[in-house]
Amino acid sequence: MRELEERIKQDGRVLNQDVLKVDTFLNHQVDPMLMQKIGHEFYKYFQDYPITKILTVESSGIAPAILTGLEFQVPVIFARKHRSITMNKDLYVADVYSFTKKVANKISIAKTFLNSQDHVLIIDDFLANGQAVSGLTEIIQQAGAHLEGVGIVIEKTFQKGRQLIDQQQIPILSLARISGFQNGKVIFTEK
Ligand code: 5GP
Q: Which positions are annotated as binding 5-phospho-alpha-D-ribose 1-diphosphate (predicted)?
């Protein structure tokens, strides 16, 4: 998505070898006009899939997920993160290791929001090692729901997340694909 790439070039800050900061439009301050276009791109790609719910993780996935849900006219669920959680029969729970914060979290959603009739589109802000998507996939499996696809705003192709998703033959669309960082600049994957 050209506009997103331009925005990353303009506003993205390369923090180290593998982390990009985009807190002027996605991770802290949010640009709703750009999010609307992002939601539309995901809709165009997945519109023929029978999506009934959008699933993401708090907090940075929420903005693109909401605008995608608006396009599909379906509810958006965000999994909550916990450092520790006691057994609770009303929750679906999965483990996620946070790539940026280097901590293990559990993520959960209430069982009332997902069931075996649901067809789910996962949306997230970044794809790095695929931990967040794996945790969400596990929750979808626990609910007996169907995973229809994954929509990612920014994918870093040099980390192993894409490989994990491709191995499971899950349809995926990433709107910007980054192959690496060089001298503080973002290098996009050739189309
Ligand atoms: P994964 O679970 O694929 O390893 O990492 C994805 C999650 O980590 C995303 O939900 C995102 O919040 C965070 N993340 C991974 N890489 C980056 C990055 O380069 N920049 C930012 N801001 N967040 C990232």
A: 128-132
Q: Which of 56, 100, 123, 160 to mutate to test the pocket of ligand 1 (most atoms within 8 A of CB)?
A: 100
Return the CATH class of domain 2-83+90-188: alpha beta
Distance CA 186, CA 7 (A): 11
Q: Delimit the domains of the chain by residue range.
A: 2-83+90-188
CA dist., res. 55 & res. 118, Å (int)? 11
pLDDT (tens digit per residue) in 94-153: 999 987 888 888 999 999 999 999 999 999 999 999 999 999 999 999 999 999 999 999
Q: What is the pTM of this model?
A: 0.97
Ligand 1 atom closest to residue 61's alpha carbon, by position in its atom list? 10
